[in-house]
Design goal:
Elements (H helix, E strand, L loop, with lengths): L25 H15 L7 E4 L6 H14 L3 E6 L6 H11 L10 H15 L1 E4 L7 E4 L8 H18 L4 E6 L6 H16 L4 E7 L3 H8 L7 E4 L5 H14 L3 E2 L1 H11 L3 H14 L5 E2 L1 H17 L1 H8 L2 H13 L7 E2 H8 L3 H13 L3 E4 L2 E4 L4 H10 L9
Parallel strand pairs: 1-6, 1-7, 2-5, 5-6, 8-9
Antiparallel strand pairs: 3-4, 10-12, 11-12
Helix pairs in contact: 1-2, 3-5, 4-5, 5-6, 6-7, 8-9, 8-10, 9-11, 10-11, 11-12, 13-14, 13-16
């Protein structure tokens, strides 16, 4: 059998995949390490909420925080919120019950015994605790016990167990925008009471653009959450995200090839990984990536974007919204350039007042941003995608 000496493709374009280099996100990761240290020494830390458009790397970043906590031998539980009211306590308890969650430095038998005893007292039904078939269902024994109350008790018990283990607990909640307000209200009460008792528990969130508003509607204490918008990378971070994996594999990036990919990516983390993966696969020289390789990769990646994420997000826009975005793309010379709202309205045959509702809907979806009579596209890729539709006659701007 012939064994290939070709280095493995280091780029990871899959949704939720952790990229080889989390360029531009280092301050968030570094601060989380400090939070772990501070809370572990009996102090407190602000909760963190990562929010932004899909494809910006929120889930990957949350995974990095999980790894940081586990490196400190904390019990780290990452779960996805569900929309059903009362599900958050089940979700978190189920995450704790999963196999291989308990760190190696813990007394696993003692932990499972105590958590099992607590679950029985609290009316949390746990099957297969610590095993491959672990599952959890909350069924309070007393009918008037609310899941939010059980959530407070769960935080208290986990924090006390962590003290006995001389470690901490990190609870990281993804897709926060799905959670009910009542569940989040109970969660913030649990967080507050855990802090009052100086229990070593850290909570972090990740979700879409509406996450900050949802959290603050649930509890006034959410105003103290550290909200971090996870957006596009700047050119320097994009440079590192593309070049560093190739450097590690001993493959040289020509400067003009790198510049072209950086410009096309618009700093969108998902684009960056797809471009990196494609250029790696098409390079003609195993030791070098040239501008010819980059041009081919852009064609492949663009086709993939149009069939996948961009195409889906485009059809999810309201019809008039698509025309507004297309008009902006024709007026702007480059992605995210500001243009006058009046010129956009003129191009689509509407008044600025008639466009106001459409602009708000586009802004809510993260597609555009408006400021002082100007508007720009904020969804990476929409600039060239919309311009291409206009140029091919697939969208007619003046439909009014």
């Amino acid at each position: 059998m012939v064994v290939s000496t070709e280095p493995r493709n280091p780029y990871r374009p899959g949704m939720g995949e952790s990229p080889p280099v989390l360029a531009g996100r280092e301050p968030i990761i570094d601060r989380f390490y400090l939070d772990l240290e501070q809370v572990g020494e009996g102090g407190t830390a602000r909760e963190t909420a990562l929010y932004g458009l899909r494809g910006m790397g929120k889930t990957a970043l949350l995974g990095e925080l999980v790894r940081a906590a586990r490196q400190a031998e904390w019990l780290a539980v990452r779960v996805e919120a569900e929309s059903e009211e009362g599900s958050l306590v089940s979700t978190i308890a189920g995450g704790v019950a999963r196999p291989r969650v308990v760190p190696a430095g813990w007394d696993q038998g003692s932990f499972l015994d105590r958590f099992g005893e607590f679950a029985a007292r609290a009316g949390i039904r746990v099957t297969g605790l610590g095993g491959v078939d672990a599952s959890v269902r909350v069924k309070p024994k007393v009918s008037d016990v609310r899941p939010a109350d059980v959530l407070v008790d769960l935080y208290q018990e986990l924090g006390r167990i962590a003290i006995d283990q001389r470690r901490g607990i990190a609870i990281l909640i993804d897709e926060t925008q799905r959670a009910s307000v009542d569940d989040l209200r109970g969660l913030f009460r649990a967080v507050s009471e855990a802090k009052t008792e100086q229990l070593p528990v850290i909570t972090a969130f990740a979700g879409l653009l509406e996450t900050p508003e949802l959290l603050m509607s649930a509890a006034t204490s959410a105003e103290r959450v550290l909200f971090e918008e996870i957006g596009v990378l700047d050119p320097a971070a994009t440079y590192r995200a593309l070049r560093t994996p190739a450097d590690r594999a001993g493959v040289i990036f020509d400067d003009d090839a790198l510049d072209l990919l950086i410009e096309f990516s618009e700093g969108y983390p998902y684009f960056i990984q797809q471009l990196g993966s494609d250029v790696w696969n098409v390079r003609s020289d195993p030791d070098r990536i040239t501008i010819d390789d980059a041009e081919i990769a852009i064609v492949l990646a663009r086709r993939q974007f149009e069939r996948g994420a961009l195409g889906r997000r485009w059809v999810e826009l309201p019809e008039w919204g698509r025309h507004v975005v297309a008009a902006i793309s024709m007026l702007a010379d480059y992605p995210s350039q500001w243009v006058e709202v009046g010129k956009v309205a003129e191009l689509v045959g509407k008044t600025t007042t008639e466009l106001s509702m459409t602009r708000r809907r586009l802004s809510d979806r993260g597609a555009v941003q408006t400021e002082r009579g100007q508007i720009r596209i904020t969804q990476p890729g929409f600039h060239w995608y919309a311009a291409g539709l206009v140029e091919r006659g697939e969208i007619d701007l003046e439909i009014g």
